[in-house]
Amino acid sequence: MPTRAGISPSCVGLPAGSWPSITDFLVERFPAISREVWLQRMRDGLVVDEFGETVTAERPYRGHIRVYYYRALDEEPRIPFEETVLFQDEHLVVADKPHFLPVTPSGHYLQETLLVRLKNRLGIDGLVPIHRIDRETAGLVLFSVNPAERDAYQSLFRRHEVTKHYEAVAPWRGDIGFPLIRKSRIAEDEPFFRQREIAGEPNSYTQIDVIKVHGNHALYGLSPVTGKKHQLRVHMNALGLPLLNDRMYPPVDVTPDDDYRYPLQLLAKSIAFTDPVTGKQRHFESRLALRDL
Length: 293
Hints:
Blueprint: E1 10-14, H1 22-29, H2 35-43, E2 47-49, E3 65-69, E4 84-88, E5 92-97, H3 114-122, E6 128-129, E7 138-144, H4 150-158, E8 163-171, E9 180-188, E10 195-198, E11 204-214, E12 217-224, H5 231-238, E13 266-274, E14 281-285
Parallel strand pairs: 7-13
Antiparallel strand pairs: 1-3, 2-3, 4-5, 5-7, 6-7, 8-12, 8-13, 9-10, 9-11, 11-12, 13-14
């Protein structure tokens, strides 16, 4: 199935089973999607099997095949901030992502994601992010243009061969000596979207320094060597330096809704690496900035 309005089709494998129809399986497998929604997608020809045959409402169930479908949202909030394309060639696209915009579709966001916006804007259906940053974080995100080259770029991150620098605003504490290195083991917390430090062999590594101090806050330079989920936010919070406007760390009982007046003060500022395809030295710098101190 081709990309549709920048959205690639989703896929689900049909296991062995005795559901009366494929529709019955889909309704049970995805309880958040009503039967009527699935039926409408089928009427619109938006559900097909791996052989390209349309899945109809009464089609009998058959296991061990794949079914493809397009996700859709009844309502999707518009993120009122725009991305900027900083660089584009036949290999890479580099974008400056604003705060609050997700990189890829998930949950309540589909069209309002950096990936889908760029696909529609640039007309590159095969565009894929090489790495990701949090929805709340602003700054640089790299995308691969050519599917045959994708793994070469992604392997740079797996081998920690990319130099990344972030900037963050957080409280100032004169009793902590900088620069410092934070190494710890990060694991999933409760609820699932939070992380925490636990005892054990470190799996995360961040270099932290101070760029400038103003009153009770400071602008910090953060250089992660590893890329664990929420790593910078977890490390700074563990030091007693929670990032300004962080809605998750320190943990709260109920995560507040987005308030566009108070973006998380974390910016993916620069990235550098040796291009595995061209051999060139690549260096990209975000044009965004955090609040003035």
